[in-house]
Structure to design on (209 residues):
């Protein structure tokens, strides 16, 4: 059968029984507190675990004082005790809730930091893309302008080349004039080759080497 959970009024409970009721892990601390009060005369205040006759664990809060005689001799310790088990259990529950909350806060903070890094990476990628797009648009505009100028200049050169060819065919056999016309034709052909490269840059036609 189970032992009674509380001690009976007529049951002996001296200092030895008190020490045996204290949880073994708390006993050194409890005895040190008692000894400090006996040595210094300071009030005694401590919380420790006790084991009841039925084996259950309970918390006790003890407040005591050293009683001195008229001659200053140490007579006894007096005090009061209270069962604070409910408060300790509530504190344990609160501590666990706080630990859980702290862990959740850490997890959420980590998630937010990861999301922030992702957003920063996406912003950086978008900025790089926008920069490349602006460069591509500039190159496209330059290409369009270059292509238009090169196309018009090529038409002018074709007319010049055609007229020079006609002029060379109809001029008399004048060596000096023929050299001048050949020089003009050579320069016009070089200009035509340049316009072809400009047109290739403008993506109007393939560059043929």
């Amino acid at each position: 059968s189970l032992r009674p959970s509380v001690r009976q009024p007529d049951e002996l409970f001296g200092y030895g029984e008190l020490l045996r009721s204290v949880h073994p892990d708390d006993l050194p601390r409890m005895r040190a507190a008692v000894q400090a009060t006996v040595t210094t005369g300071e009030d005694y205040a401590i919380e420790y675990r006790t084991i009841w006759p039925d084996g259950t664990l309970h918390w006790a809060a003890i407040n005591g004082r050293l009683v001195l005689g008229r001659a200053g001799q140490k007579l006894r310790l007096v005090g009061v005790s209270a069962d604070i088990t409910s408060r300790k259990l509530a504190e344990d529950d609160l501590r666990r809730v706080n630990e859980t909350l702290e862990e959740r806060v850490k997890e959420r903070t980590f998630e937010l930091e990861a999301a922030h890094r992702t957003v920063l990476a996406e912003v950086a990628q978008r900025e790089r893309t926008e920069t490349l797009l602006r460069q591509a648009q500039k190159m496209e505009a330059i290409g369009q302008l270059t292509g238009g100028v090169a196309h018009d200049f090529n038409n002018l050169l074709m007319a010049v080349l055609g007229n020079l060819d006609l002029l060379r065919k109809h001029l008399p056999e004048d060596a000096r004039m023929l050299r001048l016309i050949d020089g003009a034709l050579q320069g016009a052909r070089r200009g035509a080759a340049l316009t072809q490269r400009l047109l290739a840059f403008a993506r109007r036609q393939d560059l043929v080497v």
Q: What stands out?
A: The radius of gyration is 52 Å.
